[in-house]
Design brief:
Helix 9 crosses helix 10 and helix 9 packs across helix 14. By secondary structure, this protein is an alpha/beta fold. It has 15 helices and 17 strands. The relative contact order is 0.14. Bound molecules: 6-O-phosphono-beta-D-glucopyranose.
């Protein structure tokens, strides 16, 4: 990966600087990077929006955001340094001629122009045209964009086509914030730096794999967006499929972006399509009804603010995914994700195969399989469940399930675990595309998701209700029970 010595200072231009994404995430992560001395001294941050008029207004908003969302105390010295980097321009993003103002606050001779599109995708085309019109782009310039990159394959092709008129693919950085999470990256280390896993990572030893991304939050005042999107597009198309590609990919030849992207695409291409013929046995959709979370009553999906009381949008999805390649033949991947579940929990559980013969029948009639549990959040870490002899001088050997437990916060006390955004924004400024999504990956993921979406529509598959504060509808338990398996609880 690119190291600090090749890291040029940047003009980081945030379009939508006063919006939610910028205030809640970008300002906070940029301040944290500055605090950790990871921003080049000459890097500048230029906020663009159509509301405020002066830089002092932007600085005030940045200060308020930090007070609200930073969670740590603001360091006055760092704040002085950070606020001195801030600049602001009022631009109506739909007016191409207004972008020429950017030339007065950026310097493409000494700094790399990094354009962060923190606005709704319908404005991406305008920004690209405006930037083109401004004449400030060079081959070094970059653009960073986030999901939703379309709501299906065609709309994602349209966005990518517009962007491609102005930026080459190597200048485009598509963010999935899960790829900045420490444990997702650690999958690479775990799989490709440890021979016990490298040699056992296939259908010979693995029975099946579960991925759970449980959320306690509901739709948080975003009914309009979420109702048109649903959990399949909001979470599976991106975050869960990304986790899946990291679990399932073949060893890349090195850590270069191209090598990793190529392996991920191969996994996406090998996903067995879910169509109208198998959608009922492979998928479960759910929608939460009123319930209790941490002792508090919470409304159902259809009673959320601004809800359409007839909506059939899913807030929960469970899927059985098959990967049609040599390594994973016969090994199902079960994915589930939902809003208003019992807890915020993101984890991968790898179930190894049971042994063919049991010589410890006194302890266990059936020897339970070993499990590797990778916790992504809230407590990042890795656990391995193994069987051990209970110490003692009994006539028979008695076994007990025990855990080899590696908690990241305990094991790496000295290294600060940053959030996903810090890592990704820094890599975009460094110009390292490894942790970003290629166009082909996004389009391949949409192809697979569109087929499920179509199948649901044409089979009239309706979401099953589940009470908020549970782990989803009963049908999700049945999805695994049909295969004689159960979700890790
Ligand atoms: C976002 C989704 O991409 O990820 C949200 O749009 C979801 O609906 C969020 O709540 C979850 O992210 P995290 O990092 O809290 O797991």
């Amino acid at each position: 990966m690119t190291n600090k010595t090749t890291f040029k200072p940047c003009d980081l231009v945030i379009y939508g600087a006063l919006g939610d994404l910028s205030r809640r995430k970008l300002i906070i992560c940029l301040y944290r990077l500055d605090n950790a001395n990871l921003l080049e001294p000459d890097t500048r941050i230029i906020g663009i929006d159509r509301h405020a008029h002066e830089v002092k207004h932007f600085i005030e908003i940045a200060h308020k955001s930090l007070q609200e969302f930073l969670h740590d105390a603001l360091d006055e010295t760092v704040w002085q340094r950070f606020s001195a980097r801030l600049n602001y321009l009022k631009i109506d993003l739909t007016q191409a001629e207004e972008y020429v103002q950017l030339a007065s606050v950026t310097d493409n001779q000494t700094r790399v122009l990094v354009n962060y599109f923190a606005v709704a995708p319908f404005l991406f085309k305008n920004i690209c045209q405006g930037l083109h019109h401004s004449g400030i782009l060079t081959d070094e310039s970059r653009m960073v964009m986030e999901k939703p990159i379309g709501h299906n394959l065609q709309s994602s092709i349209d966005i990518n086509d517009e962007v491609a008129k102005v930026f080459n693919e190597n200048q485009v950085f598509r963010i999935d914030h899960y790829l900045g999470k420490e444990t997702v990256l650690n999958l690479l280390a775990l799989r490709f730096a440890n021979s016990i896993f490298t040699t056992n990572w296939n259908h010979n030893t693995i029975d099946h794999i579960q991925v759970t991304v449980g959320e306690e939050v509901g739709i948080e005042g975003r009914f309009d967006y979420f109702d048109k999107t649903g959990q399949l597009r909001d979470m599976v198309q991106n975050h869960l499929l990304q986790i899946l590609t990291f679990i399932a990919m073949e060893p890349p030849v090195n850590l270069e972006a191209e090598s990793i992207h190529n392996e991920k695409i191969k996994v996406l291409k090998a996903l067995r399509p879910i169509t109208i013929n198998n959608v009922d046995e492979k998928t479960v959709r759910g929608q939460y009804t009123a319930g209790y979370l941490r002792g508090q009553a919470v409304p159902g999906y259809l009673e959320e603010d601004g809800a359409d009381s007839h909506s059939t949008t899913e807030s929960f999805v469970a899927l059985r995914v098959d990967i049609d390649n040599w390594r994973w033949a016969g090994v199902p991947f079960y994915l589930r994700t939902g809003k208003r579940l019992q807890g915020k929990r993101t984890e991968i559980v790898v179930y190894f195969k049971q042994l063919p013969h049991n010589i410890f029948k006194d302890s266990f009639r059936d020897l339970p399989p070993n499990k590797l549990i990778i916790h992504l959040q809230p407590n990042e870490g890795v656990e391995i469940e193994i069987l051990n002899k209970i110490p003692g001088i009994d006539e028979h050997i008695k076994l007990k399930k025990t855990k080899l437990d590696l908690s990241f916060s305990e094991a790496f006390k000295q290294s600060r675990i940053f959030g996903g955004y810090e890592k990704l924004v820094l890599e975009a400024m460094r110009g390292n595309p490894t942790l970003f999504l290629s166009r082909q990956e996004i389009e391949q993921a949409w192809t697979w998701i569109d087929s499920i979406q179509d199948a649901w529509q044409h089979s009239n598959n309706q979401p099953s209700p589940y009470s908020a504060g549970t782990w989803g509808p009963v049908a999700s338990v049945a999805l695994l029970a049909r295969d004689n398996r159960a979700w890790e609880e």
